[in-house]
TrEMBL record:
Belongs to the CBP3 family. It comes from the Bacteria. The lineage of its organism: Bacteria, Pseudomonadati, Pseudomonadota, Alphaproteobacteria, Hyphomicrobiales. Residues 36-175 form the Ubiquinol-cytochrome c chaperone domain. Pfam families: Ubiq_cyt_C_chap. InterPro entries: Ubiq_cyt_c_chap, Ubiqinol_cyt_c_chaperone_CPB3, Ubq_cyt-c_CBP3-rel. This is Ubiquinol-cytochrome C chaperone.
Length: 179
């Protein structure tokens, strides 16, 4: 789907990449996810929400122009650099970072695949099941708010589909407000 890291390639879209990534992070940090929909406000819960928003952008970009596909790779690189930086801020040493990065990358691509399949099939139950399994794996009881998150993802998918490639290539992305 998307190549992992191209660390040694110069990013000719730095301002655009930074602008898009900041908007993705801001959308992933909407307080309603954590305060009303019970997504854990922990490093892994925030990773899950960031992963969802990255997936949404990458899913949209995959059907876009060649320039947008290239930009999506720059954004993927930025995402994984940010994850690497976050691991180091959490106190993970140099020896432990590559192992954890490999695990987090595998988690990301596995989640992206399950979310993409559920959305393609227009199967909200499958999307809810994937979200519950990924975001609340230790929960013994059903997660009542998962339907809100699934609906948000469906709305975001439609919203991003309606945005022109030129908007993304200019560094603008609009996610819906989570309500």
């Amino acid at each position: 789907m998307f190549k992992f890291l191209r660390l040694f390639r110069r990013n000719s879209n730095r301002e655009v990449t930074d602008s898009l990534y900041e908007a993705i992070v801001a959308s992933a940090r909407q307080p309603v996810f954590y305060s009303q929909w019970d997504v854990p406000d922990t490093p892994i819960g925030r990773y899950e929400m960031l992963s969802i928003h990255m997936f949404l952008f990458l899913q949209r970009a995959s059907s876009g122009s060649d320039a947008l596909v290239h930009l999506s790779q720059d954004l993927t690189d930025e995402f994984f650099k940010d994850v690497d930086h976050s691991l180091r801020e959490l106190g993970i040493g140099d020896a432990g970072v590559p192992k954890r990065m490999k695990k987090l990358a595998k988690m990301f691509y596995g989640r992206a695949d399950s979310y993409a399949r559920a959305l393609a099939a227009e199967d909200k139950e499958a999307l809810e099941a994937a979200l519950s399994r990924n975001i609340m794996p230790q929960r013994d009881t059903p997660w009542p708010q998962v339907g809100h998150l699934a609906s948000y993802i469906e709305r975001a998918t439609k919203s991003l589909a309606s945005q022109e490639d030129s908007e993304f290539l200019s560094g603008r992305i609009n996610f819906p407000v989570a309500e």
